[in-house]
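Troubleshooting entry. The earlier prediction with phosphoenolpyruvate gave an output that would not parse, so I re-checked the input for stray whitespace and re-submitted. Clean input:
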Amino acid sequence: MIIVLKSGATDEDVQRVIDCIVEMGLKPHISRGEFRTIIGAIGDESKLKAERFQGLPAVDAVMPVMKPYKLASRDFRPDDTVVAVKGRRFGGRFLSVIAGPCAVESLDGLREVARRVKAAGAGLLRGGAFKPRTSPYSFQGLGLEGLKLLKQVSEETGLPIVTEALDTRDVEVVAEYADIIQIGMRNMQNFALLTEVGKINKPILLKRGTAASVEEFLMSAEYVLSQGNKEVILCERGVRSFEPSVRNLLDLSAVPNIRSVSHLPIIVDPSHSTGRRDLVVPMALSAVAAGAHGVMVEVHQNPQEALCDGPQQLTPDDFDKLMAALLEIARVVGKEVSSGE
Ligand code: PEP
Ligand code: MN
């Protein structure tokens, strides 16, 4: 930690800061400039309480040197974490593709989409049974019935399931049916839910909140990791912006940005970030080019009749084209598309 004193700080002010540092078990390092004195605290920064220094009248700024997250950081684990689910791998040189409808609506529709996306090379099937809708009057998902349909189609096709848990009360039942539990962007800072999924033995797909910084996103991952669950896959899905022509602004820089500071796999959702079918393919390909460990794409057998997110869902034919191009880009960036086959 670095403590910058205000200009005009007296020798007593400097001594007070030094005493605080020593009291907390660290070593002070004093650098006196012409106008200002800067004091470094050397040692285990976790022992330091920044508020103690912020409260001193002569202190201008207190700057931590260490990142506030530990288990999620590359300092803690220099090599990429690879999360594997039934042979589908996320992380390192592997990428996986998750595809399926926004919500589970019917057995026939889900089955048709699952067969088509599997044939095109997707590794996992998505579909919401518990849907986080902005309006309480919108379709809220089929709940337990939806989970059962996902399980049936998973058994028929061999595709593992990714589905969302909205609430701490749903975690147990979702964990019974899902292979990967999704935490949606609205719940990125639902710390009770993060703590709950941190205790289970299934990978977690954690989506970035639309108003969350990269650091806040990684702090949420830290919540899960700190409970013992080491299998967290991050998902960039866009942030709020002033641009009205897209639903959110996909922050593709988050992919290499996060990869430089964290060992966790990171995938991209081009569907919810853009909200527009015509932008899904270019953004999915750009995500892979930027180093993402996968993409999650919404696909519906008949998007015009979808009960939610119709304008962004691809048709199975669109998805075929996406996969053909994605395999090419993956090859160029040296990634292996892992579909479990
Ligand atoms: C979803 O993936 O089904 C979803 C609702 O996404 P988000 O939480 O990113 O809006
Ligand atoms: Mn959706």
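This one parsed fine. The chain has a mean pLDDT of 96.
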